[in-house]
């Protein structure tokens, strides 16, 4: 495809001076011709696309031409409302929180804050979730969502984690849309694993599925002194018992997730996870549950059984799908829980709370 762009010339004394000093042809330089191979977006055999290239290479222009009304840029958010209230009224709270979780923003304390107080990484994920929410509206399933300036305002750790979370959501159907990232950052390609890439540096389209880099976590015992880094991100109490046994997961030497374990009341051979927190920059990759399972293996080797009890949808969904966890009990506001070794924790009566036991890996 070929696009010709023209910009207006505002003639003035200073414009003429610049043109004369630097020998700029005003008529010639007010036009730009873009040439690029056209991706086969009409085909149904793709889920994720990527338009990438240096600044000024015409990415946004080409994306607007290709996707029209399906091309999205960051929009304003209400200053006097929480993030969850910034979505279309047709969406349920459950759908909104699922979308936020699917792009790696899985923090209930953050969901109830106004957009303006969030970090750049959290704001980016909210913008992404709101654009993707159009696929949840009536008739929106499998529509194309093209998102401009993808990961442009966040650090590269957030960019990688958000890209991987988005890829997982689209591939698994949690996000019922086809997604196109428009960005100047080439490093997101292997984390998005796109079906096709249009590189505006060359104007060529390549069809391929890159493999996401391996994520290697280091898990070790730690002290309570690490907890303040994670405390404000926990969706329940920020307290930590003095008797808690603490574990830290790091990625390339950077703290990413925290786990605390406590004895289970009246059960000598059992322990429970009392705190499990992943820092916002690392959310969306499943790091928290990988840490929980590593801690489960550690306790199995010690001859102990480990449980986790929680109400966060992401934790419940992971444990129910995983062969590493067995459901022990389910409680809700109207349910009558069966007899269980898991105590009924204070404040759990108004929400669904599910308990799981860790199943050790086969030798």
Could you explain the architecture of this structure?
The protein is 27% helix and 25% strand. The chain has a seven-stranded mixed sheet with strand order 9-10-11-12-13-15-14, covered by helices on one side. Strands 4-5-6-3-7-8 form a six-stranded mixed sheet. It has a two-stranded antiparallel sheet with strand order 1-2. The protein has three domains: 1-35, no CATH class; 38-207, P-loop containing nucleotide triphosphate hydrolases (Rossmann fold); 217-358, Gcn5-related N-acetyltransferase (GNAT) (Aminopeptidase). The protein contains eleven helices and 15 strands. The protein is an alpha/beta fold and 363 residues long.
Would you summarize the structure shown here?
Helix content is 27%, strand content 25%.
Summary keywords:
363 residues, alpha/beta, Rossmann fold, Aminopeptidase, 3 domains, 7-stranded mixed sheet, 6-stranded mixed sheet, 11 helices, 25% strand, elongated
Number of helices: 11
Q: If strands are numbered along the chain, what order do they take across the biggest sheet?
A: 9-10-11-12-13-15-14
Query: Measured on Cα atoms, how large is the radius of gyration?
Result: 25 Å
CATH architecture of the largest domain: 3-Layer(aba) Sandwich
Strand content: 25-35%
> Using DSSP, what is the number of strands?
15
Q: H/E series, N to C? A: EHHEEHEHHHEHEHEEEHEEEHEHEE
Helix content: 25-40%
Determine the N-to-C terminus distance. Answer: 57 Å
Write the layout of secondary structure elements.
Elements: E1 2-6, H1 13-21, H2 26-29, E2 31-35, E3 48-52, H3 59-67, E4 71-72, H4 93-102, H5 108-111, H6 120-132, E5 143-147, H7 156-172, E6 177-183, H8 189-192, E7 196-199, E8 204-207, E9 217-222, H9 228-231, E10 245-251, E11 254-264, E12 267-278, H10 287-301, E13 305-310, H11 313-321, E14 325-331, E15 353-358
Parallel strand pairs: 3-6, 3-7, 4-5, 5-6, 12-13
Antiparallel strand pairs: 1-2, 7-8, 9-10, 10-11, 11-12, 13-15, 14-15
Helix pairs in contact: 4-6
